[in-house]
């Protein structure tokens, strides 16, 4: 028998949708493109949920009110966001965790090395893969049918209404309604190449990008919906959550451990041995998300973070050992950098440092004078052997090009919302996140829209009109207040 | 013979004076922890990961300490984004188990007997066969057969002093061997764990963690893993039944010894005497616990733990089960013609158990307790690593 709701995808948003639809009484079939061992998409690499809260809440300290969350989002996106949708995501994050717990998710206090987000982010115990495992267990216990290694190639859509999905092997799966939560297109090298194009040096920058997450986000249905069905689009294909990671990281699935956290403690030079940006502009957790693009703009899409012995032990230990040398020229040589220009850069940086009282936990007064670009904090001469260098490449986490949607999570065709096709997760995150990133917000978006998409898919299967996300939030906040 | 590059590496390390040469199993733990230390998602599960974050490198003594702190709960394996088939192939429970196996071998006293860990199934089988043979032969020698002893008096078969003379030296040797082994372990890991002395709060915390088996609770109280990624309290509960059952049986024997020498009341005892109560409850608990652990061990996820140590795990479980059930059977067989045979079986099992205590799975409890105590001490010292991001 055909299921009421077909969920395409196997990450956080897809699982939230499947669970909500099943809880509402619908029969649900979930199709995951990856084999079981690789299930969960990028969600398996996540670690926390950015949460609004007015007062301390179990693992969350102090308060993180709606307005502050919104201002943080506004700042990182530079206004490329939809305030109404963003505020819904924010409010939803304040009341969704009891539901997550009911489905087996455990939260824990922030990890060591991540205390700066103790106020804003609730950490999943064991990380995102533990969350994905819990959701799959809960879904299967509730009777959601799951098929692995089942990539969908195209959809049958008639007058904006979902009819059936066609699998790669030719199988046709009809359902009353459908939720699309199959991720962005970051794993699709050809599409990245097309989006980023060729630069003024004749390079194809995206050829040097590493993908921090799953290899399965090929964007097949995203492209199919945009190009073959004319679904309304949101976002720019070159926008993505992109950070600078260890150049030796694997092509896919390097995840969190490949990040390099010593940028603000030293200098970063490009292939020509020259600095290109203020490494001490702000605290690293507030700046890590811009360095992927900064490195992507450099020749060869590569950078080199250079530190000395003074920095050791002051940053999260990197996964691979750094290149180590007893002198700076030797380090340049070992890193394959032009020694002369490297030494000019380091010498003029060292001479320009005005060291006051070094304090890596504050925006301290150690800065450079007369140097371009300046280093405005934590500037100390790099003069104490041994010296270490880490090669950096852009690491893409996920892309922001997606399907336009509104507060019911419906896919839109020609200005009208589809009555039975919904979208969640990376496929629509661009509605809230036009550019930039702030830790944990991807999961906030995926959880909010996954849940409302699933609820509305179940309603549509019963011929009921879609509900706005605000209704779900009001119900849950009411329950929270009643409990309190 | 080790490959040339390994020899060169060790020689270099020795020449530099910066590291003690490490085994492949230890190097593998160090490799994996380098990845874990850059991720840290598993910090909430157990003691291993918080202890890891106090370190940037993982030399031999640190690896031994962390490996023995690991309870093989499996939480970090199922939650790991870098677990196989990922190319990083992180499997902490397995890597730690391999080092633990090596620890038991390396710290065994006398050192020559460390080899008994490596073919532990055989060791236990031979010990059991030896124990059974000993008592069967003794019975025949003393009584001329196994069926000629009516009544319910064990000492009519084996005089009390003979039993004391047989068991006391073996038991005392086991205690000595374990004590000397763990003392050397303690001396090696103490400098790697802050070097600070044991304080009463640290001792209290470690005792609590041992007696409650805290680190099989998953960090959230729902338990650890066995068959798959679902949490279960079954392992913790079965281990409790086994551990406390064992202690009750041991207490029964100790109390009986006091009855014998202080009160002049020789065995056998009947309900509701204290030795009988302790022994009955302990025996049932031990039998149920080991039956449960056996079943869980058979169903354990293949990636979790070291498959090469299964014979050791199961041999020990089986021996404990045999000890408990033969003890209970002896109760039922009293006064029947089968008593002498069952008595030989029980005494043989107990003898095999005692003789192999320092060279089998039992050692895990001793080394883990030592590691938990060092952890409780170390966590009270300021972390040597100060991350600027905090």
UniProtKB/TrEMBL annotation, chain B:
InterPro entries: Citrate_utilization_prot_B, NarG-like_sf. Keywords: Membrane, Transmembrane, Transmembrane helix. It comes from the Bacteria. The chain crosses the membrane at residues 122-142, 162-182, 241-262, 274-294, 315-333, 339-359. This is Tricarballylate utilization protein B. It comes from Hydrogenophaga electricum.
């Amino acid at each position: 028998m055909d299921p009421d709701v077909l969920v395409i995808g196997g990450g956080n948003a897809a699982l939230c949708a499947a669970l909500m639809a099943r809880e509402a009484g619908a029969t649900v079939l979930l199709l995951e493109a990856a084999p079981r061992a690789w299930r969960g998409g990028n969600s398996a690499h996540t670690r926390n949920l950015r949460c609004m809260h007015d007062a301390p809440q179990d693992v969350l300290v102090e308060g993180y009110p709606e307005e502050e969350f919104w201002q943080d989002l506004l700042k990182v996106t530079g206004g490329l966001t939809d305030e109404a949708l963003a505020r819904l995501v924010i409010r939803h994050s304040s009341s969704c965790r009891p539901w997550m717990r009911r489905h087996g998710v455990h939260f824990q206090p922030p990890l060591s090395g991540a205390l700066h987000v103790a106020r804003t982010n609730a950490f999943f115990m064991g990380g995102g893969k533990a969350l994905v495992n819990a959701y799959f267990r809960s879904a299967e216990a509730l009777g959601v049918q799951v098929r692995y290694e089942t990539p969908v190639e195209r959809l049958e859509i008639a007058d904006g209404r979902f009819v059936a999905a066609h699998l790669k092997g030719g199988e046709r799966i009809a359902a009353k309604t459908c939720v699309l939560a199959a991720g962005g297109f970051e794993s699709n090298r050809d599409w990245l190449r097309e989006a980023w194009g060729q630069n003024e040096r004749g390079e194809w920058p995206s050829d040097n990008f590493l993908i921090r997450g799953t290899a399965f986000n090929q964007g097949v249905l995203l492209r199919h919906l945009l190009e073959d069905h004319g679904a309304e689009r949101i976002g720019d294909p070159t926008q993505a959550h992109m950070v600078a990671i260890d150049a030796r990281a694997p092509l896919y699935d390097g995840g969190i451990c490949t990040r390099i956290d010593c940028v603000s403690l030293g200098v970063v030079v490009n292939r020509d041995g020259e600095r290109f940006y203020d490494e001490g502009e702000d605290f690293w957790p507030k700046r890590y998300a811009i360095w992927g693009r900064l490195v992507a703009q450099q020749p060869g899409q590569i950078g080199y973070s250079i530190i000395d012995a003074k920095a050791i032990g002051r940053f999260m230990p990197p996964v691979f050992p750094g290149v180590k040398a007893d002198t700076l020229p030797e380090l340049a040589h070992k890193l394959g950098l032009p020694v002369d220009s490297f030494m000019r850069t380091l010498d003029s940086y060292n001479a320009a440092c005005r060291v006051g009282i070094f304090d890596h936990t504050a925006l301290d007064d150690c800065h450079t004078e007369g140097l371009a670009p300046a280093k405005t904090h934590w500037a100390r001469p790099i003069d104490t052997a041994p010296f270490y260098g880490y090669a950096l490449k852009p690491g893409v986490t996920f892309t922001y090009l997606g399907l336009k949607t509104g507060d019911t999570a419906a896919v839109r065709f020609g200005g009208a919302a589809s009555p039975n096709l919904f979208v969640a997760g990376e496929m629509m995150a661009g509605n809230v996140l036009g550019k930039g990133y702030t830790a944990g917000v991807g999961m906030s978006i995926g959880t909010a829209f996954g849940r409302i998409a699933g609820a509305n898919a179940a309603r549509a299967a019963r011929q009921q009109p879609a509900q706005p996300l605000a209704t779900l939030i009001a119900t849950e906040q009411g329950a929270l207040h009643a409990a309190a | 013979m080790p490959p040339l590059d390994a020899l060169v590496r060790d020689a270099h390390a020795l020449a530099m004076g910066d590291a003690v040469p490490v085994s492949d199993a230890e190097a593998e733990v160090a490799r994996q922890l380098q990845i874990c230390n850059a991720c840290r998602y598993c910090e909430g599960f157990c003691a291993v990961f918080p202890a890891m974050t106090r370190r940037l490198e993982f030399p031999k003594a640190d690896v031994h300490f962390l490996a023995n702190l690991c309870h093989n709960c499996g939480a970090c394996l199922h939650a790991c984004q870098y677990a196989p088939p990922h190319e990083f192939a992180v499997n902490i429970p397995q890597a730690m188990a391999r080092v633990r196996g090596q620890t038991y071998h390396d710290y065994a006293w006398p050192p020559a007997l460390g080899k008994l860990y490596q073919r532990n199934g055989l060791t236990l089988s031979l010990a059991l066969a030896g124990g059974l043979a000993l008592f069967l032969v003794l019975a025949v020698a003393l009584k001329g057969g196994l069926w000629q002893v009516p009544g319910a008096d064990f000492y009519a078969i084996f005089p009390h002093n003979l039993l004391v003379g047989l068991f006391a030296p073996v038991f005392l040797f086991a205690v000595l061997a374990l004590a000397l082994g763990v003392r050397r372990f303690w001396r090696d890991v103490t400098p790697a764990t802050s070097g600070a002395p044991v304080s009463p709060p640290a001792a209290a915390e470690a005792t609590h963690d041992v007696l409650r088996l805290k680190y099989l609770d998953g960090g959230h109280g729902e338990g650890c893993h066995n068959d798959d990624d679902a949490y279960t309290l079954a392992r913790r509960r079965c281990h409790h039944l086994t551990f406390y059952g064992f202690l009750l049986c041991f207490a029964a024997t100790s109390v009986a010894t006091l009855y014998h020498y202080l009160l002049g009341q020789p065995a056998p005892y009947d309900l509701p005497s204290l030795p009988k109560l302790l022994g009955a409850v302990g025996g049932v608990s031990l039998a149920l616990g080991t039956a449960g652990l056996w079943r869980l061990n058979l169903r354990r996820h293949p990636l979790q733990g070291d498959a090469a140590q299964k014979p050791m795990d199961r041999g020990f479980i089986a021996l404990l089960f045999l000890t408990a059930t033969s003890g209970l059977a002896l109760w039922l067989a009293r006064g029947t013609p089968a008593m002498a045979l069952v008595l030989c079986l029980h005494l043989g099992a107990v003898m095999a158990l005692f003789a192999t205590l320092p060279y089998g799975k039992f050692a895990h409890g001793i080394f883990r307790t030592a590691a938990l105590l060092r952890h409780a001490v170390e966590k009270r010292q300021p972390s040597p690593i100060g991350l600027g991001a905090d």
